[in-house]
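Re: weekly structure request thread

Next one in the queue (190 aa):
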Amino acid sequence: MDNLSGKVVLVTGAAKRVGRGIALRLAREGARVAIHYHNSEEEARRTAQECGGAPLFRANLESVAAIERMFAELEERLGGLYGLVNNAARFARAHPLEITEADWDFIHSVNLKAVFFCCREAAKLMKKGGGGRIVNISSLGGIRPWAEHAHYCASKAGVIMLTRALAKAFAPDITVNSVAPGVIPFEDID
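Done, posted below.
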């Protein structure tokens, strides 16, 4: 692992669950963690406090303009960016015959579109600083098909291929990798 001491790393969806765990670990490794959240302000504040008073960045990742504003604010407040962990994601269950356009867009706007635009904005900042690291959180659902989650599986498979394309585009100064964890139970799924 790189020496993260003092390096700025943004974690999207860092208020709860996996994102929170990633943020806490990065802080223990010495990174200057930046906490992104959208609606979970109370949890984000608690995570930020546990990360040594990490700065908070609120943004609706459905909006490219909001993503661009978040990265501009991050540069203004923290001076640059070394790492990005694209963790924010949505998960929903529906039979493919029942998935609507709105259902599809709800999942893909954050799980795939936002990942691309966060990578793009992060890479712009990282190039200014001489390089950096991007980690995109995919899912086992991007590798194995789940019948009741076609839209989710498609979004996470997209993250894997997007990661591969961006790794080639941004090399050698910026590395782009993805991690595909298995099912992680939490309170709002059975």
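The beta strands are 8-11, 32-37, 56-58, 83-86, 132-137, 174-179. The mean pLDDT is 94.
Next request, please.
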